[in-house]
Design goal:
Length: about 180
Amino acid sequence: MTASHESEETLSLFAADALEPGDEARVRAHLDTCAPCRQEVDAQRDVLGLAALPPPSPREQAVLEALPRTTVGVWRQSQVRQAARMRTTGGLLAVAAAVLLVFGPLAQRASRPPSAPGSPATALAEDDTLFLEQWAMADPLSDALDDDEPGLESSEDGADAWDVDPEDFLSSSPLGESP
């Protein structure tokens, strides 16, 4: 090959139909005028033809055409099975939680030894129950709003301790400095 001939790599790509359209047009124009390059391309196409796979049989074509449908079908089946397992597991967990909520306290009472009505354990349980009932009925803000707290009582002249006299601000020195 002389300097005016195409490179062997370019001719191989042309034989494999792997060139960009612009390069392909340039090589085709060169092949119209250059017999040695045309022979090289024909020889490479023969070699590539030996390596090419035979066309698929009708059965293979049918399998290839059905592959997307069967793949999606299998995926859907697996998703449906997984969802059914999750629903079953969730249902079983919900039933187990309900059983524990209903029968848990009964089992706890049954596991305790019976105590006499006047025994200390019964008195303690009754005290706990009374305390919990009082706690449940308590107002959480009532403690914060009691008048018994220091600083919240009314002043002697009837004004609230929270009232501020504007002159307190006017007579004070800036930045908390003492006069």
